[in-house]
Design brief:
2 copies of one chain form a homodimer. By secondary structure, chain A is an alpha+beta fold. Chain A is 32% helix and 22% strand.
């Protein structure tokens, strides 16, 4: 077989790193379930007419054909590039069998044929939560979804997260209060603040959108407002613009910000950032972007918001609110930089030594007695000298080696880190709780209790 | 949007059914980890030259191209149709960073563009365990992998499983003992016993392979041997054929059978079935097929065996042994037939009632006190009359409704199945353990403790 090279944009993890990714997925899922979100998975393909909307993303869609399908080999199917499009289709397809408001989380891969760069992959895993209702969605779900995602992120060992909030009603109400007839033209121009200078945006607002210099200035003043508490309301009020939609937006944004404050601390900050818009047509209320502190170069690692029409079958519309968190986008760079790692590449807490091939069944019985009590255990692959079996455990980071007693002697177990070896009964002995499973090492993985048990596989 | 129809061959599950699938995946993973198997995931695509081997499967491969990639839009990538091809590539790619023998499990989707039928899907999930070593793999891993898969399946609520074992050395040794120069021609003919009559196979062995009538008879006698214990050894011996490879094969098959006996009982049976061959070129020792009792029409729901060259980089070969279990193949038909189901479509054990929108934060605080102790809890979406909020819980199968006390009154909790309502403290009350999470209902899901809590979403 030819030499094998990795495929750019399709990250794969070694076992210890994969343990970290799985832990984070499990922790997110646990918080989502504590809040009553049900898990679903959707197929990875969708009909092309549902995926391709004529936007920028279209050219990144991977389309499927059969290898030897003859002339008519098109399947009409493409791989999903997010979890929102398939979720919308799932809701429509199963509307009669779901209870609304429907609360779901979904943790799956998605695919985009974009140019790979740090944190941007062609195959990536993301975690989405959404609440979708029929025809009307209560505002309190916007608070809830942001607060649940905040709580979920805090429960992981990921670096501190910063959630930035805005509200589309606030922006639109402000522009309307200024008497601007086409708020989306302003939004489009202001959205370029990321890529260009304030002066250039100001000029565009005046020259292209046709605002007065004073109005353009006010739009930029609005976009400059950031606050970690509800003081942003006063900042906006000071700009002297009035509109009922602006009032609603301010009230909603303050409520969502307030709902996330319970999670704030060393691990999580939240702020109103009135520049956040997240595209132009999609969202209709709360908008959210999530940044990982110290890793701002990755850009946002999550985002979402309120949308009034996730899906529609003509007679019923399904408004929703959801936030997506990029697991690959955040975790893979942290693993690559060694910020996070797994304490060992195997689940085994114990290696049972094998004296000789004839007595492998004796070792197996000891292992079974440990396993029945939930202790992950493997047997030495070869009946080598005990020193070599200990090194076998060491290379895998397995903290304990078990020696079955020969000729009526009791079993013994050795902590290969301290070298301490004691008599032990396989029906009673347990490793200390922190040694039972691999652990996530680094960042906020409770590093005070960390004892690395050996070499890792990375 | 157009009316949405399901896509044939791409099964999707409603939340209660998805809970069943996830439970089974978690239970399998738990057993694999208890035996020291580490989890990995591989990307879903492989270079086409690695996937397409000129066999039957080639025309079922899904190939990726970019939607708007221009003339040169081929990616050279296809979606994997099993987890063995990507695992072999992963081992080669990471050989320098893995410890051998390398024990891994992998639970992922795979794709085949075949004609959908019951249990056969175009997108399906499977669970694989393999042990791979460098250059030489100890035989005891063949016992281990079969025994671990047996133990893992018994720990799920799936119907009883029947594992059928054979050994390629046994078959080849027997044929060589008869003086047959081309054992694979005989194997190819005998392999057709599934599809044709014994008489037709006998004729083919004589006419096409060129065996004597007596030898052909003996080959068929061998293929007819089945036994649930090591008595098959005597049955083979009685055929009077001798060969050292046959001796090895008999010894190995007896040892693998013996290793699986610990799991036998009402939930699992194992037998030697000397007709099992599993293809022609790939396997070199133990071969395994798994059938689900009562669902033999699904054909095998799992299989695998020993292969001497999973992968090779020219200088090093990587022999291994592995078994794959079809999660979609077994679980989806059971869900469709209603044999298995989830007890409720939401994780929530408690619905906290909301008296009015103003006091939602009071309800939220009660919910948080329950959640912090691991009790999945959601809030009523609307402050309707309590009777309607109770029906909201009922429709979701949520067993308990929590009523925050108003004006200094204590909180109360109602078991909506019995109607019993008691005073309760959100810092202390817990639901009975079986109500904490949804449960798998049916088959061997410990149905004695089953109390269905309400309607499901299927």
């Amino acid at each position: 077989m030819p030499k094998v090279a990795p495929l750019s944009g399709f990250p794969e993890l070694l076992p210890a790193d994969r343990y970290v990714e799985r832990s984070i997925i499990d922790q997110l899922a646990r918080t989502f379930e504590l809040h009553g979100f049900a898990n679903i998975e959707t197929r990875v393909v969708e009909p092309l007419d549902r995926l391709a909307k004529g936007g920028e993303i279209d050219k990144e869609i991977y389309v499927l054909r059969r290898l030897q399908g003859g002339e008519d080999d098109g399947t009409g199917l493409g791989m999903h590039y997010d979890l929102t499009v398939p979720f919308a289709r799932y809701v429509l397809e199963n509307a009669g069998r779901l209870e609304f408001p429907f609360r779901r989380y979904q943790i799956q891969k998605a695919w985009r044929g974009e140019r790979p760069q740090e944190g941007r992959f062609r195959e990536f895993t993301q975690a989405d939560i959404d609440v979708v209702d029929k025809n009307e969605l209560s505002f309190h779900h916007e608070i809830e979804v942001a607060a649940v995602m905040a709580e979920a992120l805090v429960a992981t060992p990921l670096p501190p997260m910063n959630m930035q909030l805005n509200n589309r009603k606030l922006i639109e109400g402000f522009y309307r209060g200024l008497g601007i007839p086409d708020p989306s033209a302003v939004m489009r121009a202001v959205d370029k603040l990321d890529k260009t200078s304030i002066g250039a945006v100001e000029e565009a607002l005046v020259q292209e959108v046709g605002l007065s210099a004073a109005d353009a200035r006010k739009c930029l003043d609005l976009a400059a407002i950031r606050a970690a508490d509800v003081s942003f309301v006063d900042d906006v009020r000071r700009l002297g613009v009035e509109h009922p939609l602006l009032d609603t937006g301010l009230e909603e944004l303050a409520a969502v910000l307030d709902g996330c404050l319970a999670s704030t601390g060393r691990r999580f900050t939240v702020e109103a950032n009135l520049r956040i818009a997240r595209g132009l047509d999609y969202y209709t209320g709360t908008v959210v972007e999530i940044f990982m502190s110290g890793y701002e170069s990755l850009k946002s690692v999550g985002g979402g918001g309120r949308y009034d029409a996730l899906a529609s079958d003509g007679s019923t519309t399904y408004p929703g609110v959801g936030i997506s968190f990029g697991i690959s986008r955040s975790v893979v760079p942290l693993l690559a930089r060694g910020v996070l790692s797994g304490s060992r590449p195997v689940p085994s807490a114990v290696l049972v030594a094998v004296a000789d091939e004839k007595s492998r069944s004796v070792s197996r019985r000891a292992a079974d007695r440990l396993r029945v009590r939930g202790i992950p255990t493997e047997l030495a692959a070869r009946p080598q000298k005990y020193g070599r079996q200990i090194r076998y455990a060491e290379r895998r980071g397995i903290p304990f080696v078990w020696f079955p007693g020969a000729g009526g002697a009791p079993d013994e177990v050795k902590d290969i880190r301290s070298g301490e070896q004691v008599v032990a009964d396989a029906d009673e002995w347990s490793p200390p709780a922190p040694d039972l499973a691999p652990r996530v090492v680094g960042e906020d993985a409770d590093s005070s209790t960390d004892r690395r048990t050996g070499k890792e596989d990375r």
